[in-house]
Amino acid sequence: MKQKLVILGSTGSIGVNTLDVASRHPERFEVFALTAATRVELLFQQCVEFRPRFAVMTSFDHAAELSQRLKASGTQTQVMAGPEALVEMASHEEVDMVMAAIVGAAGLGACLAAARSAKRLLLANKEALVVGGAFFMKAVQQGGAKLLPIDSEHSAIFQSLPDDAQTWSQRIEKIILTASGGPFRTRKVTTLKDVLPEEACAHPNWAMGRKISVDSATMMNKALEVIEAHYLFGMSPEHLEVVIHPESIIHSMVQYKDHSIVAQMGTPDMRVPIAYGMSWPHRMESGAQALNFETLKPMTFESVMEHEHPQRFPGLQLAWHALRAPSGSTAVLNAANEVAVAAFLDLKIRFDQIAQVNQHMLSSMSFESPTGLEDLIELDARSRSLADQYVQSIQR
Ligand code: NAD
Ligand code: MG
Questions:
Q1: What's the gap in Å between 346 CA and the centre of ligand 1?
Q2: Does residue 12 carry a pLDDT above 80?
Q3: What SS3 class is residue 142?
Q4: Which of 45, 149, 271, 379 is deepest in the core (most CB within 10 A)?
């Protein structure tokens, strides 16, 4: 029996890589549904190639255009629109696996639908977990879903951990996430205010969507990943560490109580964690190149406290601030950052002001302790609107 796969956000960087992996194993996977926000042309091509039963677009106009083109081409994919359709696909009874590759908190509803209907949930959409936090993990547990991390660091950690989660707290001293340092690791700190969106989106090691590329340049991506690791692996903030490793060969590490460190390595290619998530507990071909030790450059490491790194990456420490602040703070931080990154990409604020918006929101937002996911979704919306107001109040 083929496994039926839904890809939420199939036109993005993770979505395209997932289709590439699936296409290498047509005997194992059937593409059941593909979804996208606005890119009609690419979703059309994907539907023609993979013949999914359903395709979903965010707006009804885009859906109508896609539907028309598919009919004209003789492709029988049924087209739907809107967030309810994403939820319907993620929880469809015939579906085995859901790749959550929408960017931002917009993906939370569909992730929860997959979690509550006991799917294998391949989680690339880190913002959904940063917003939902412990309540998200509880939904996974109560729904009987299997959550597999797709973020390369978290896949590396998952691969470096023993199977028996009950023993993690006794055996593990800390989790060490590696960070490439992004495109501005060596750029003069005083020039960061002049960074243009195109420069921030040009990552040295990975080709990714624009939002995560900006997050990698500010290191907010690593802050979100520290929070993600906290919730995924139940590790307290003081047992989470970040080290800069510019070559992106070691994808993260687990340090045990005896000071043995287990690391996962490979070429920087997202098809490796994607294939692992799809084939777990087994392995299958991913399409990624193997490491070549004859040509491999020396691997280097830098402390995040070295040189000017704390000034260069002021957002990184916000992960620990948010994890130690009242519950709900990680949702506030994520909302602030989504608004700030969008404003930077729209040339409304400077690159260095992204951290300013995030810091401001984290320290000024007051809210009651969330009692469930509904409260967090409401907190996310309120934080966005306040972050928007703050963005409008600052000078670029
Ligand atoms: P991307 O911008 O390339 O793609 C995003 C996808 O989501 C697109 O298909 C888009 O159509 C869809 N989308 C965007 N907004 C939407 C909305 N409001 N409603 C419904 N669909 C929407 O992003 P990406 O780089 O593929 O990243 C996706 C997620 O995976 C992010 O959460 C990112 O942090 C995470 N991630 C990405 C990488 C990577 O290498 N690209 C690595 C690790 C984690
Ligand atoms: Mg990552």
A1: 18
A2: yes
A3: helix
A4: 149
Q: Is 180 in the same domain as 52?
A: no
Cα 269 to ligand 2 centre (Å): 11
Q: Which of 13, 224, 251, 272 is the best mutation target for the ligand 1 pocket, counting ligand atoms within 8 Å of the beta carbon and taking the most? A: 13
Helix (H) or strand (E) holding 43: helix 40-50
C-beta 153 within 6 A of ligand 1: no
Band of pLDDT at residue 206, cut at 50, 70 and 90: confident
Crossing angle of helices 329-345 and 210-218, in 10° steps, is 110
SS3 state at 352: coil
Cβ atoms of 277 and 148 within 8 Å: the answer is yes
| Domain, as residue range, for 248 | 156-266+305-394
Contact 86, 111 (CB under 8 A): no
162 and 146 co-located in one domain:
no
The pLDDT of 235-251, averaged and rounded, is 97
State how far the Cα of 201 lies from the Cα of 12, in Å rounded to an integer: 14
Cα of 250 vs centre of ligand 1, distance in Å, is: 23
**81 and 97 within one domain:** yes
Length in residues, the chain: 396
pLDDT number for residue 212 = 97
Summarize pLDDT for 306-323 with one digit per residue, the tens. 867 889 999 999 999 999
Please count the structural domains in the chain.
Answer: 2
13 close to ligand 1 (CB < 6 Angstrom): yes
